[in-house]
Amino acid sequence: MLNRIILIGRLTQDPELRYTATGTAVASFSLAVDRQRANQAGEREADFINIVVWQKLGELCAQYLRKGRMAAVEGRLQIRQYENREGQKVRVAEVIADNVRFLDRGDAVPTSATGTQTRSEGSRPMSESRYQDDPFADDGHSIDIVDDDLPF
Predict the structure, then answer these.
(1) Has residue 19 been placed in a domain?
(2) Which DSSP category does 22 fall into?
(3) How many Å is the maximal CA-CA distance in the chain?
(4) Where do the record's region annotations for Disordered lie (predicted)?
């Protein structure tokens, strides 16, 4: 059996960080994920998916992620049920994240929420663009490609 989900989207709110009675950190936020196809009116729709991130990874998400930031979330789908104050049973679907990657640039933000920074001593600070050394970066010139040149 397999229960794996990979999502890429934008945060709809700042992460909310809480702590359990035993002191375990838990962050929650909602991720807006665009649908592949437009609806009958020709508009693109999005799904708003609840994300829960535990422990140090949750603290890192609360520290670095903000509303509007793009993130990739990998985890598992969890359906839980509880009874609300009116006595009605409520079912909640949420993704329990195992890995979160920060996909857009931010000031001094690591590219992954694994808790380890990818820079070594003597290298550029994290706030500098990691794309400065990219030989394929857009230099402002358009590229003309003929369909016959493509291998597919």
Answers:
(1) yes
(2) T
(3) 66
(4) 107-152
CB neighbours of residue 113 within 10 Å:
24
User: Domain for residue 152, yes or no?
Assistant: no
* HSE value, Cβ hemisphere, 13 Å, CA-based, for 45: 7
CA-atom Rg of the chain in angstroms: 20
Dihedrals phi, psi of 53, to nearest 5 degrees: -130, 125
Residue 20 resides in a domain: yes
Task: Flag whether 106 is in a domain.
Answer: yes
Q: Which residues fall within 8 angstroms of residue 30, CB to CB, at 6 or more apart?
A: 11, 12, 13, 48, 49, 50, 51
pLDDT in tens, 71-107: 999 999 999 999 999 999 999 999 999 999 999 876 5
> Quick one: which of 49, 109, 107 has its CA closest to 75?
49
Q: What is the pLDDT of residues 46-77, one digit of tens each?
A: 999 999 999 999 999 999 999 999 999 999 99
Which residue type does 135 have? P
